[in-house]
Amino acid sequence: MLSNSNVVQRLSLLLAVSFGVAQQRSTWEVIQEEVWTPRCVECHQEGTTFGEQSDLYLTSDVAYEELVNTLPNNTAARGDGFLLLGNDGLASLPTSFLWEKINASDKEHFYSDHPYYGAQMPLGASYLTNGQLAFIKEWILGGAPKEGIVEKAKESLLDDTTRYDPPEFMAIDTPEQGIQLHLGPFEISPQFEREFYYFQPLDTTGNIYIERAELTMRSGSHHFIAYSFSESIPAWVGLTPFEYRDIRAEDGSYIQSSLLATLWHSFGFGAQIPFMNYQFPNGVALRLDADLGLDLNSHYINLTDTASVGEVYINMHLLKPEEVDQIAEVLSLNHLTLSLPPNKVTTLDTTFTFIEDASVFQLMSHAHEHMLEFRVEKVGGELDGELVYIAYDWEHPPILELDPPIHVRAGEGLKLIVTYDNWTDETLRFGFLSEDEMMILFGYYYFGSPKASIEEEPLLPVAFDLRQNYPNPFNAETKVEFTLNRNSNMKLYLYDMIGRPVTTLLDGNMAAGTHTVNWSASDNKGRPLPSGVYLIKLSVQDQFRVIKAVLLR
């Protein structure tokens, strides 16, 4: 028998546990109680003009069924294939009308590209806070469930009570440790697409390490990209500094001489949104050779009957070499041989296989106006076939930051699946104008497996550098130069484009300093190799550098 005091204690404990469970709100309940009820229900309830006009009611008894997997009342949004809110995770974010209406930071895109979608919400009131938007976004990415808790939708996100403040175009402050570039102002003719390159030498030498890239552009920009070069540009290309090299004349014809330097382009950074402030992961930096300069690529579209003005400010915030733990390698997966039949919807897919373990931490698609959908799936491994990126808007594709990064092991890859609608009477192929097409996936990665935290697992500082072989392309012999900043155990070896070992040039301990190795285009048995592209890999402990060497017989 239990005493009265024991019974009371047991009942008190049971009530406390039950009360605690009752207070554990689902993610949906948090959204209802913290967002819809205080911010939206006043307008979206039975008997209100806005509720009847939008046919959307957000009171707690009906809100979930009103939103999820239902069609919007807006005719234009229905015609564009939107649901009010989908529950397919990543694929639903860009096709949910609700997200379009509340995502304040996408204001310029919303009003410029969707003139019939009405106004952003809440109407006539302040935007939702950045914390509320982040919480809702994680809930959508988690499949928008009614029950249970979405792990990444932490209630602590709601502590961020700041709101989006639309920036006006203006000069940005010069970095305390870095470089600022300024492009323009320049004119765009009426009813014209102006795209050009502009060679910008840098007022420094050697390698620079970018930890943050910051851009601001006047409205009307389709994209801006800062390209580096894979090697020094031959003098015969005629690359003149501080000169606008338009890629087409007023009559629409290509100016071939302006495109020559693109043969040596290496993607650096860029954006298709008017404001960007991208921070690389802690301890990770993009390495560029300042001696080669940058080729700045700006593309503006002016559909009005009067001339417009373009202008771009670029900030590169830099780290010192000893502050860098991992080098950000550029991901550029480009399908150049696309062919789209006239008056037909066509889906193309191509798979790119990785030859080394890589941790991909950013993805961004690049296509033109005929693109309907741009999907990227993981190939191989535990996530085989899983959707990792999707875009429906060719002008403003999402820049997807992956934390933690996607681990793509050697032999695994990424599959690009892109659907186009060629409504013209001509076959469309790769080209630079918006009426041509492209199929490119940009991004960044570093070699090796993902690092959960720089603080938890300190990495080795950058201790070496591999320069582009010279000459390249070459016929009989080429020189490979590398630098070690301390005595190191290293390996320098070559393999072909499908990952088969060709030969080992060096393997062992080397002293600090700069070293040069000659390669006579032969394999490990001294046999001459055929023409082709070969990969030269320098490995120092658990870090790598890889360059491409082109052999022409």
How would you sum up this structure, described in words?
This protein is mainly beta. The protein folds into 4 domains: 22-159, no CATH class; 175-324, Jelly Rolls (Sandwich); 328-453, Jelly Rolls (Sandwich), CATH 2.60.120; 464-551, Immunoglobulin-like (Sandwich). It is 14% helix and 38% strand. It contains 9 helices and 27 strands. It has helices spanning 4-22, 27-40, 49-54, 63-67, 75-79, 97-102, 107-113, 130-141, 256-259; strands at 178-188, 192-200, 207-217, 221-229, 244-246, 265-271, 275-279, 284-289, 294-302, 308-319, 326-334, 339-340, 344-353, 358-366, 371-379, 387-391, 400-408, 413-422, 428-429, 440-447, 464-466, 478-484, 488-496, 501-510, 513-519, 532-540, 543-551. The strands form 6 sheets. Strands 1, 3, 7, 8, 10, 11, 14, 17 and 20 form a 9-stranded mixed sheet that branches. A 5-stranded antiparallel sheet has the order 5-2-9-4-6. Strand 26 (532-540) and strand 27 form a beta hairpin. Helix 2 crosses helix 8. The radius of gyration is 27 Å and the shape is globular.
